[in-house]
Specification:
- This protein has six helices and twelve strands.
- It has helices at 12-21, 48-57, 61-70, 78-83, 120-126, 182-190; strands spanning 2-6, 25-29, 40-43, 72-76, 84-86, 97-102, 112-117, 132-137, 141-145, 150-154, 160-165, 168-171.
- The strands form three sheets. It has a seven-stranded mixed β-sheet, with helices on both faces. A three-stranded mixed β-sheet has the order 5-6-9.
- Helix 5 packs across helix 6.
- It is globular, with a radius of gyration of 15 Å.
- The structure holds glutamine.
- The site of glutamine (GLN) has 12 residues, from helix 4.
């Protein structure tokens, strides 16, 4: 199995380090041809407008959309925004996931925070009971999801922070910035 990480901007190096800990072969993706031979792709956190503009500049938009038709893709934070179909403003989006996202939704005074989440699918897939400790940095929320999208996790006030549509995964938080490999393990179960 070989997993690519979109390496245009953001914390792609942390995702690669997590995948290496799981003994997965990795590749940095900067050009369309770098998608060849990959079984799945992670789009990291960072700044979604910048990631989108660079993807346009490197002619990656259509190749990424096509890749997502057949292969697993996981977006963390800015990556989740880039995967979505609606952010209520004009910026390049892949539109692969039927989710509406609100950027920077947790407000300036709490730009960053950490909290424990109960994620039944994650516990089941990894055979563990420990809650998932999630790190949010200027995080988006998933405002609404389409009928074919499953909500995986919400913060205590009910706002959605993780969702899955078949082999596509979106998280508002950053598993790559923790020591917990379970979310990466969960993503690998979606890879054919
Ligand atoms: N606030 C960023 C955005 O809207 C996302 C932040 C992140 O990826 N940590 O693109």
């Amino acid at each position: 199995m070989k997993i690519g990480v979109l390496a245009l901007q953001g914390d792609f190096a942390e995702h690669i380090a997590m995948l290496k800990r799981l003994k997965v072969e990795t590749a940095e993706v900067r050009l369309p041809e770098h998608l060849n031979g990959l079984d799945g792709l992670i789009i990291p956190g960072g700044e979604s407008t910048t990631i989108g503009k660079l993807a346009v500049a490197y002619n990656l938009m259509d190749p990424l959309k096509q890749f997502g038709q057949r292969h697993a893709i996981w977006g963390t934070c800015a990556g989740a925004i880039f995967l979505s179909k609606d952010v209520s403003r004009d910026q390049p989006l892949l539109g692969l996931m039927d989710i509406k996202v609100q950027r920077n939704a947790f407000g300036r005074q709490v730009d960053s925070f950490e909290t424990d989440l109960d994620i039944p699918e994650l516990k089941q897939a990894t055979g563990t009971e420990t809650p998932y400790h999630a790190v949010f940095i200027r995080a988006p929320i998933i405002e609404s999801v389409g009928d074919n999208v499953k909500v995986l996790a919400s913060v205590p006030d009910g706002r959605i922070v993780a969702a899955q549509q078949g082999h596509l995964l979106a998280t508002s938080f950053h598993p790559e910035l923790t020591n917990d490999t379970r979310f990466h393990e969960y993503f690998l179960t979606l890879v054919d």
